[in-house]
Structures are given as C-alpha cells and as structure tokens.
C-alpha cells in the first residue's frame, strides 16, 4: 500500500511541490525584473516608436513603427524652446505624439499662415511638427496643457543608420516672442 501511495505523489520522478520549488527563483527574478523595468520606464526613461511624417526630417516616422526614440522623463516645467517632446495627444489621450516645443507659458506665437499672433496661457505650451504641411499640432488645436507632456526626446536609437542625438532647434527669429518680466 505504501508503495502505491508514494507512486501517486511522485509524478515524473518528482513530488508535486518540487516543480514549484524549481520555478520559484525564476518567477521571482522575472517579477522583480518587470517591476524594476516598469519603475525605470515610468520615472527615468523609455523608448517610443515614431509614426507618421509630421517630424520629418528629424524622424522618418515609418508607418510600421520601425523607428524608435529614447525619451527622458522630465519634471513638469523643465523644458525649453526647441526641444522635441512626447505628449499625450490633446485629441485622443490614448495616443502619444512627438512634436517640437515652440513656445512656453506667457510667450506670444506668430502664425504667419493665419496672420495671427496668439498668447500661450499659463500652464500650457505650443508644439509643432517639423513638417508643417502634414503635422496636426498646436496650429490646429491651440495651446497644449503642460500636464500632457510626458518627456523629452533625446536620441534616435533605431534604426542604427539614424542613431544619434536629437538636435534642439529654436523657431525662426520673430516667430516666438518670449514672455518678458516687467
């Protein structure tokens, strides 16, 4: 009887608890790695696929998402004019979009195509794509709340042929009139 009972407990030469004992270190390492990775991508940096042609020539923006950028998470209000940023789309908060930061709170932005000058309200910024003819940006939906900005795009990391730093490019002279403290 004892031999039959011990055969029932042992499957494949191991007791049922031995399989979990063997997998436990692997499971703990995977869960720990996932949590560390999640914390790093949420607080410090992450990678973002680039889609669409609104940022040409800075990014090619292939439709299949084969171009990736390194995103450095930054504190709110730690941005300057000319930087490329990633933000939640003001039109669809589920989507992320990459644009160049043109104006900061209090700045005046000139819109030559509309012959208009607009003031950026406090807590907002003005973003535009480098390829204005196809970009849907602040020219279409106005100033963007700074709370939607999620980080600064610092490098192109894929494909290897385009790998490198993303340059800061300030808009042409007279396009943005910075706020002056009087």
UniProtKB/TrEMBL annotation:
<dbReference type="InterPro" id="IPR036286">
    <property type="entry name" value="LexA/Signal_pep-like_sf"/>
</dbReference>
<dbReference type="GO" id="GO:0042720">
    <property type="term" value="C:mitochondrial inner membrane peptidase complex"/>
</dbReference>
<keyword id="KW-0496">Mitochondrion</keyword>
<dbReference type="InterPro" id="IPR037730">
    <property type="entry name" value="IMP2"/>
</dbReference>
<dbReference type="GO" id="GO:0006465">
    <property type="term" value="P:signal peptide processing"/>
</dbReference>
<dbReference type="InterPro" id="IPR019757">
    <property type="entry name" value="Pept_S26A_signal_pept_1_Lys-AS"/>
</dbReference>
<keyword id="KW-0645">Protease</keyword>
<keyword id="KW-0812">Transmembrane</keyword>
<feature type="active site">
    <location>
        <position position="99"/>
    </location>
</feature>
<keyword id="KW-1133">Transmembrane helix</keyword>
<dbReference type="GO" id="GO:0006627">
    <property type="term" value="P:protein processing involved in protein targeting to mitochondrion"/>
</dbReference>
<dbReference type="InterPro" id="IPR000223">
    <property type="entry name" value="Pept_S26A_signal_pept_1"/>
</dbReference>
<dbReference type="InterPro" id="IPR019533">
    <property type="entry name" value="Peptidase_S26"/>
</dbReference>
<protein>
    <recommendedName>
        <fullName>Mitochondrial inner membrane protease subunit 2</fullName>
    </recommendedName>
</protein>
<dbReference type="GO" id="GO:0004252">
    <property type="term" value="F:serine-type endopeptidase activity"/>
</dbReference>
<keyword id="KW-0378">Hydrolase</keyword>
<dbReference type="Pfam" id="PF10502">
    <property type="entry name" value="Peptidase_S26"/>
</dbReference>
<comment type="similarity">
    <text>Belongs to the peptidase S26 family. IMP2 subfamily.</text>
</comment>
<feature type="domain" description="Peptidase S26">
    <location>
        <begin position="27"/>
        <end position="111"/>
    </location>
</feature>
<feature type="active site">
    <location>
        <position position="54"/>
    </location>
</feature>
<keyword id="KW-0999">Mitochondrion inner membrane</keyword>
<keyword id="KW-0472">Membrane</keyword>
């Amino acid at each position: 009887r004892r031999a039959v009972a011990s055969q029932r407990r042992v499957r494949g030469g191991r007791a049922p608890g031995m399989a979990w004992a063997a997998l436990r270190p692997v499971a703990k390492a995977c869960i720990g790695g996932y949590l560390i990775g999640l914390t790093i991508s949420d607080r410090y940096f992450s990678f973002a696929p680039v889609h669409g042609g609104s940022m040409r020539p800075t990014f090619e923006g292939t439709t299949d998402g084969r171009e990736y950028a390194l995103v450095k998470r930054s504190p709110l209000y730690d941005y300057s004019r000319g930087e490329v940023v990633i933000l939640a789309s003001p039109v669809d908060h589920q989507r992320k979009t990459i644009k160049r930061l043109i104006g900061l709170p209090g700045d005046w932005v000139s819109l030559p195509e509309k012959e208009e000058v607009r003031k950026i309200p406090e807590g907002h910024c003005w973003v535009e794509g480098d390829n204005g003819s196809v970009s849907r940006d602040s020219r279409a939906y106005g100033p963007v709340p700074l709370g939607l900005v999620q980080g600064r795009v610092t490098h192109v990391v894929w494909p290897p042929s385009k790998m490198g730093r993303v340059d800061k490019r300030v808009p042409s002279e007279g396009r943005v009139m910075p706020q002056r403290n009087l």
